[in-house]
Design goal:
Structural class of chain A: alpha/beta
Radius of gyration of chain A: 19 Å
Radius of gyration of chain B: 19 Å
CATH class of chain B: Mainly Alpha
CATH topology of chain B: ABC transporter involved in vitamin B12 uptake, BtuC
Largest sheet of chain A: 6 strands, mixed
Shape of chain A: globular
Number of helices of chain B: 11
Helix content of chain A: 25-40%
Helix content of chain B: over 70%
Distance between the termini of chain A: 36 Å
Strand order of the largest sheet of chain A: 6-7-8-3-9-10
Oligomer: heterodimer
Shape of chain B: globular
Number of domains of chain A: 2
Structural class of chain B: mainly alpha
Strand content of chain B: under 5%
CATH architecture of the largest domain in chain A: 3-Layer(aba) Sandwich
Strand order of the largest sheet of chain B: 1-2
Number of domains of chain B: 1
Distance between the termini of chain B: 54 Å
CATH topology of the largest domain in chain A: Rossmann fold
Largest sheet of chain B: 2 strands, antiparallel
Order of helices and strands of chain B: HHHHEEHHHHHHH
Number of helices of chain A: 10
């Protein structure tokens, strides 16, 4: 298949006696949106943590744009073009919304210190502009100078999405982007994710509990249960798959 | 009135030294949650390097540079060689604090071995006895220089942390390491810089304290404890808090010595620690780190 952006092959992750992931295969094609679904503890977040080098997988391979990600540090994975959000939010709470977005620009700060010193104004303006673009897109204008800790939960979710976007990733990993939100906020955020895809041409890998949102956003779905891939296909197919129904509803 | 002002000024001078020490402690605590008990001893060994160079009649700036570099290198080496490995093997925070205590004892041993335990005096170009009258008070050249060093260190650190990109990366790393990593910040490098800067600040305190008294392998113990008290008073994770706490402690100590009894002067720091921990555990300007779980 042409245009594979991310390939996860036979990935296993064990902690002591617990198997979090068991020989999982997932591929994400350039430009698509793939949703990973599954009940709690099925290994969705573990998969993300392996891709972003927070966990070291026990065995298997992860390839991004043709290069292996195994053994890299999390910041090296990020500079390769992968950004993520966290299920429980990991924001810089004592910084302003704008500063959170600017940390996301870190990768694009000039590496050469003296060059940066010389063109500091133009650089600064470039980064601010990108941050402003995200602020405008995600409707964060009113809170740009607010401390993140003082913002509502729904706003914080958007800030984290914006911060990931500020790194200009090729692949965006979203870990339960709509969890904890009201129905209205969920719809809004789903709309924004849709917008982002169009505007920035980013490929999205999504972990989601809310099947309605997941099937609205994703063109393809993978279902995990107890660390094993139990189904793969279109959202319709996967949700009707007997194994998936069993995993969600019990025996 | 003159007496009050005079003692307050002496206190500010001592407070500047405490501030330099406290800033280093807070910088490390904020970024790694480790209380560095070797902070004073790193400054001691670096000050002895300056001593050796100054007694060989090398220029002051060279000695200052070499001692700052020594302090920074010891700090970074300890972080990279010991702490990072310990962390990788699953050491908890308490374990890492004990490791800093171990480093402190090792450095003390090395200093005694190399330079001996006899107190020596540091040949210093700035005089302790030349004084200037400013209005109602008299200030020595040394305490003027000490206050200038404290101010320079504090402002320099403020600019670094609040106004530069490296500072932004430092703040991000200290607030949420994992998030910083996944945004592409090389956190190990950033933390190495924090250790280097923190250790160098302690060395500045050592260099300016040494000429006021004699240099011996344990001369930084007292200022370290005072700096620690100041950091607790200001809030262990607040850099401005460290400076405020240090100046309050310096002045309070000096006034206690003047108006109460000199014997009580050194106890005051610990009375302050106890009271602060009981009444306002987060310190004057501290803010508890909160992580959503």
């Amino acid at each position: 298949m042409a245009g594979e952006l991310l390939e996860v092959e036979q990935l296993s992750l064990r902690f002591g006696g617990i198997t979090a992931l068991d020989r999982v295969d997932v591929t994400v094609a350039e430009g698509e949106t793939l949703a990973v679904i599954g009940p709690n503890g099925s290994g969705k977040t573990s998969l993300f943590n392996c891709i972003t080098a927070i966990y070291r997988p026990t065995s298997g391979a992860i390839t991004f744009r043709g290069r292996s990600l195994l053994g890299l540090s999390p910041d090296a994975v990020a500079s390769g073009g992968i950004a993520r959000t966290f299920q429980n939010l990991r924001l810089f709470h004592n910084m302003t919304v704008l500063d959170n977005l600017l940390v996301g620009r870190h990768l694009h700060f000039r590496k050469n210190f003296f060059e940066a010193l010389l063109r500091v104004r133009r650089e600064e303006i470039r980064h601010r502009r990108r941050a402003e673009e995200i602020i405008e897109l995600l409707d964060l204008e009113a809170v740009r100078k607010s401390r993140v800790a003082d913002c509502a939960y729904g706003v914080q979710k958007r800030v984290e999405l914006g911060r990931a976007l500020a790194t200009e990733p090729r692949l965006l990993l979203l870990d339960e982007p709509v969890s904890g939100l009201t129905q209205e906020e969920k719809d809004e955020l789903a709309y924004w994710i849709h917008e982002i895809r169009g505007r920035f041409g980013v490929t999205v890998l999504l972990v989601e509990h809310d099947l309605r949102v997941a099937s609205r956003l994703a063109s393809r779905m993978v279902a995990l249960d107890h660390g094993v891939k139990i189904a793969e296909g279109t959202p319709g197919e996967v949700q009707q798959h007997p194994e998936v129904v069993k995993a969600y509803l019990g025996e | 009135m003159e007496r009050l002002l005079q003692y307050a000024l002496t206190g500010l001078s001592a407070g500047s030294l405490y501030a330099l020490v406290a800033l280093g402690i807070v910088l490390i605590y904020r970024s790694t949650r480790v209380l560095n008990f070797a902070h004073g001893d790193i400054a001691t060994v670096a000050t002895f390097v300056a001593f050796t160079m100054l007694t060989r009649r090398l220029p002051f700036w060279a000695a200052l540079g070499a001692s700052l570099l020594t302090g920074a290198l010891v700090g970074v080496a300890f972080y990279l060689v010991v702490l990072v490995r310990a962390q990788r093997r699953g050491a908890n925070l308490l374990g890492m604090v004990i490791l800093t205590l171990g480093l402190a004892l090792i450095i003390q041993g090395v200093v005694v071995y190399v330079w001996g335990a006899e107190p020596v005096s540091l040949p210093f170009p700035i005089s302790d006895t030349r004084t200037y009258s400013v209005g109602l008070v008299v200030v020595s050249q040394l305490s003027l220089a000490t206050m200038a060093a404290g101010l320079l260190g504090s402002v320099g650190l403020y600019v670094l942390v609040q106004r530069t990109r490296l500072g932004l990366a430092m703040r991000a790393t200290s607030e949420n390491l994992m998030a910083a990593q996944t945004l592409g910040i090389p956190t190990r490098l950033v933390l190495s810089v924090s250790w280097a800067v923190a250790s160098a600040l302690g060395v500045v305190a050592g260099i300016f304290l040494a000429p006021a008294l004699l240099l011996d392998p344990f001369f930084m113990l007292d200022p370290f404890l005072k700096g620690f008290a100041a950091a607790v008073l200001g809030g262990l994770n607040s850099l401005p808090g460290a400076v405020v706490g240090a100046l309050i402690l310096g002045v309070a100590e000096s006034l206690t010595g003047a108006y109460l009894t000199i014997q009580f002067k050194n106890t005051l720091a610990f009375v302050i620690i106890i009271v602060v921990l009981l009444v306002r555990p987060e310190g004057l300007l501290g803010r508890e780190f909160k992580e959503r779980v």
